Amino acid sequence: MPGMANVPVEPRAAAQAQRMRTHWLRIAPGALALALFLALALGRGVLGAVASPLQGALALALLASIIVQPSALARMRVTQTAAALAGILTVALLLRVWGLRFGLPYFEHPDEWAVAEEALRMLRTGDYTPFSYTYPTLYTYMQVGVAAAHFMWGAGAGLYRSPADIDPVPFYVWARALTAMLGAGAVALTFLAGRMLYGNAAGLLATALIAVMPAVTGDSHYVTTDTPAMFFTLLAFLAIARLTGVAAERTPSDDAPPATAPPILTQAFLAGVGVGLATATKWNAGSLVIALLVAIVFAARRSTRNGHADALDGDVALRRRNLQPLTVNLLTVALSGILLGFTLGVPFWLRDLPRILTDLAGIIAHYRFEGHPGAESDQPALFYWWALTREGTLLAWVCLGGVALAFLRRKPADVLVLAVVVPAVLQLTGVKVVFFRNAMPLLPFLCILAAALVVVAVEWVTERPGETGDRLTGGRASVAFMRRLAGNRTVLLLAATVLLAAEPLAQAIHDEALRARPTTRILAGEWLETRAQDGERIWLEDNTLILVPRLRAVGGEPAVHHDLAWYREQGIRFVVVHLDRETGAAALAAFGEPAARFLRAGERHGPELAIFDTGAPDAAAEPRTPSGATLGAGAIVLEGYRHPGRAQAGGVLSLALFWRAMRPPPLDYTVYVHLVDEAGAKVAQRDVPPLEGRRPTSRWMPGDRVRDDQDLFIPETVPPGTYRLLTGMYDAATMTPINDAGPIDLGVVVVER
Predict the structure, then answer these.
(1) Per the database record, which ranges form the ArnT-like N-terminal domain (predicted)?
(2) Per residue, what are the HEC states of 420-472?
(3) Residue after which a domain boundary falls, among 511, 536, 566
(4) Does residue 369 have a pLDDT over 50?
(5) Region 241-266: what's the mean pLDDT?
(6) Shared domain check, 372 and 255
């Protein structure tokens, strides 16, 4: 009706509608929780394929219904700092979990096994004594917990029945995820440390820088101790900073209210526990003791000054007398904390102290005197500077400027950070072995100092907006705009963040995209899988590929030790060569052009590989001694065999059997090979399914021809002489032979010494 749009809604109706909305909001979490409970209880048995999507949707809906509750919204206080921090942490986490399956099932990082395999061994055997103390044991024990959680997940999925069944590949993904979480946690701790020392702006800037540093994001993908050491070093430093009482002056933009500090002795104890835990993660984190000593001196002076401000005013002697016992008490409590934290991470340290000292001496000798081929430098300081510039050239110079500012300014916060930076740098530059990953615990503190320098520079500019604007514009008409820009602290800080983080972020994205791609090994393995037949033998040089179970790996030594004719005779069609090794182009030239090359070319990780096709003939065309013996009532025919007729005692007799399926065999049979003397006594024996089980006989189809290599080991105890070689098949379940005319005679073999 005309004019009805202007009629106001009745207040009573509006109130009723509001009450209904509040009512439905209040009961929504309970209703959704009930629905989720029913979906979980019914599971796939009732709901079928929709069970998992439905459960996930209900869980998300339940979370949303809790968040939109009026009481929850009232408690949520989203600030600019919180929003910026959430964004940075999201980017940091994404960079650290992107490409987490990097390289698997190959382990491209040389040190992952030291932690991951040790954790698996401990879980499988129940023996928690480490084999070595090259690395402290805290992170290994944490990975034991990850392995146990992974096992329970696998047991629930029907994959595992005992810890011995754990598949290393999915476990490594779980183990790497813990490192990634600690890496993201270290980013958050960097913010807390930067904010505590230099304020919100410095904390956010330092967080943004450490979040995108390529080396830091990359190291978070591996089951190694460097990223965990960075996390626990920052955790300990926060406790040390609280003990010191060093805090940035608060500004109106700082969001969090100041926290009430616990008693000073409690702070010293917690700082000691943090130092102990950090040292239990990686030995070089023990240099945090220096920062702890500096903090104790600061704390004792502050406590003495604050507690006796009136009585001690002007009485230096009395102040010193009160300072000394407090310092001793703080040292004692801190040492107790260190022992507790270290014992939590390395529980057998007192019992195994001789082993620990021996391993530490070995590490020192390795880093200082023996060296590490490919990772040595006579100028370690220049190496680490070069490595830092690769993280970002501008960032490296600003980090250096931040260190210089801290030395020149020497505020308590500067001294405290330098107490971490200086010992760490001297550790790294005092040895000949150089690995940039050893600098992981140092990098957050360099970012904090860089952020402090930027904040000082921005404050200097904003305090002189007129002078700065005139200098930048040279008196042109845009002076007013430049003055406003130079006076805007937030804009300048954002601009500095973009300038400093742009290069590291671009490099980090490039590196993570590279990790997400299949490595050269994965591509080479896929190439072979599509071309090799079940049970086919592939010659692999050492540290090249892991074959799928249906293929057989042979070799291990350099491929050039044999010529093409030898590979053809052995029935080896594909030879995989490691091109990064000094095999020699001339030696490889005899193999001709590779069938495939897998190169890095800046586009992927992994060793450079080549696969050669030797031209080995098909099983039907290979030379052999004819046989014609039948098995399984004619289901299988031994068309022929080949062996050299001579063998050394203690050596191997190469034997190739050529089978042909006439009709599908009903069962999986085992091949036996016997070497017998004149009396028929066995002197050597082999019982292995055809193709080592890679191609069971039950899968043979009529017309299939199979070359089956059944190389026989001749014990050293076999005396020289002439022996007969016999073969056949049997059903391993019943031990029933299936030869139609008894053992098949493969001729004589002369055994020599």
Answers:
(1) 172-297
(2) HHHHHHHHHHCCCECCHHHHCCCHHHHHHHHHHHHHHHHHHHHHCHHHHHHHH
(3) 511
(4) yes
(5) 67
(6) yes
* Secondary structure (3-state) at 530: coil
Burial track 242-277 (b if 16+ CB lie within 10 A, e otherwise):
bbbbbbbeeeeebeeeeeeeeebbebbbbbbbbbbb
Structure tokens at 283: 């030995």
User: In the predicted model, is pLDDT for residue 412 greater than 50?
Assistant: yes
Helices (H), ranges, 10-79: 11-47, 51-67, 70-75
Q: Identify whether residues 132 and 250 lie together within a single domain.
A: yes
Say if residues 462 and 489 touch (Cβ distance below 8 Å).
Answer: yes
Whether residue 643 sits in one domain with residue 557: no
- How many domains does one find in the chain? 4
Please report which residue ranges of 487-638 form alpha helices under DSSP H. Answer: 489-516, 520-529, 564-569, 585-589
Q: Look up the CATH number of the domain holding residue 665.
A: 2.60.40.770
Name the one residue in this structure whose structure tokens are 């930048």.
Answer: 472
Residue 335 tokens read as 């040492």
Co-location of 537 and 500 in the same domain:
no
List the domain range (segments joined by +) for residue 538: 520-613
Instruction: Report the distance separating Cα 99 and Cα 218, nearest Å.
Output: 10
- Considering the domain architecture, whether residues 129 and 229 belong to the same structural domain is answered as yes
Q: How far apart are CA 599 and CA 606, in angstroms?
A: 8
Least trusted range by pLDDT, from 79-88, 648-657, 744-753: 79-88
DSSP 273-301: HHHHHHHTT-GGGGGHHHHHHHHHHHHHH
Phi, psi (degrees; rounded to nearest 5) at 466: -65, -50
User: Is residue 435 assigned to a domain?
Assistant: yes
Please say which residue of 613, 644, 674 terminates a domain. Answer: 613
Reported pTM? 0.83
Residue 520 near residue 102 (C-beta atoms within 8 A): no
- Highest-confidence segment of 56-70, 146-160, 323-337, 599-613: 146-160
The answer to whether the beta carbons of residues 266 and 330 sit under 8 Å apart is no
Give residue 312's pLDDT. 40
Q: What percent of the chain has pLDDT over 90?
A: 66
- Residue percentage of the chain with pLDDT more than 70: 89
Q: Does one domain contain both 501 and 526?
A: no
CB contact set of 198 (below 8 Å; sequence gap of 6+) = 248, 413, 448, 451, 452, 455
Give tens-digit pLDDT for 693-747: 889 999 999 999 999 999 999 999 999 999 999 999 999 999 999 999 999 999 9
Are 272 and 302 found together in one domain?
yes
The secondary element (H helix, E strand) that includes residue 403 is: helix 393-409
